[in-house]
Amino acid sequence: MAAYRTVRQKLLCPLYQAGGSSLPCSWISSSAPASAASASPASSSSSSSSPSSTPSTSSATGPGDTRIASQWKPALPPGREPAYDAALESLKEHRNQQSDKDGVEAWVNDPEVLWKFAHDDVDLSQPVFRFLREKAWRQNGALDRLLERIRAMNVVPDVLPTIAPTVDVQVAYGAGSGIGDHGGEGGDVWPGVFVNTTKTLSPPQLTVTPFHAEVRKYTILMVDPDVPNELSASFDTFVHWHVSNVPLSATQTSVSAVSANELQAYIPPHPQDGSPYHRYTTVVFEQTGEAAPAALSARTLSPAAVQKYVQENSLRPVGIHFFRQICKDKETKRVVETIYRDTLGREAPTYGNLPKSDPFRDSAGYRHSRYFESADELAAQAI
């Protein structure tokens, strides 16, 4: 047990795996020579070959370590620690005994595979890396945050009656470290955050990561379910972007209107003045029917019409993302007015509550008085 604990400590130490020059004394095996604290591990290859290609040469070896490791190498040279050598040999035998067709179970615990995945040196054409990528997406909080917000902000059921995401959808506007709960200049947009209208004038960089190797066709809709309809005193859905026949796989994740069929060109978000915040929602549908989906009949539709279109074209929702905008400052109003005038060809509407009537004022705006006759009373007497 003591030997196993010592080996595990060395495996968890990034400096030791990188050939570090100093280690805490408690991390050095009692069976190893004292010079192990200052000597770098000998360059040796693993007792088994990895299913992946040559790793990147720019992977950091660990927090606080400025050196760069070009590839994974065993934490200990052969013969240094018998328990470690036995562990590598056991992993090799385990791989040889596995009969699963995709090799995930055989390679998922391989130290070189895990090292490459931790350093973002992955090849998603290989099943084991697709498995680890999907596992991380489902367990690192990204999917939980998305599901929490689409339900808390009623994207489900306002846009879709229900959805169980199976693909990772990332929406980015511009370049930067990301747009999160506390703002940001550009980059990947967190689900449900507010994004300035000046950043969404151009189509987003859309990345959809399915976890299957073969290429499948998808349809993408970007809609706004919060367009006021004053006649029905409810809300309509406006289609901002509609693309079909998008080829996607684990290694082909970028959405391009060039390689797909753009049924309706991108129109920038334009939240109307006086309306509540708008939820600009991007939905990814897998095309399960044989025929390619047709274009929608109009840009502005009722929610029922959108659901009917989805059902008629055999579209299955597999991914979703949304962000919010609201028109409450002069810059946003200027952008919205420009989009309405130049793109939609009409004046931007302004919404708000009707003024409350004052029962104590007449039509001229004067209050009734017991001492003076109102304008309405004088007009009635004149008749």
UniProtKB/TrEMBL annotation:
SUPFAM superfamilies: PEBP-like. Residues 33-82 are annotated as: Disordered. GO terms for cellular component: ribosome. It comes from the Eukaryota. Keywords: Ribonucleoprotein, Ribosomal protein. Residues 33-61 have a biased composition (Low complexity). The gene is MRPL35. This is Mitochondrial 54S ribosomal protein YmL35. PANTHER family: PHOSPHATIDYLETHANOLAMINE-BINDING PROTEIN, PHOSPHATIDYLETHANOLAMINE-BINDING PROTEIN 4. It holds the Pfam family PBP.
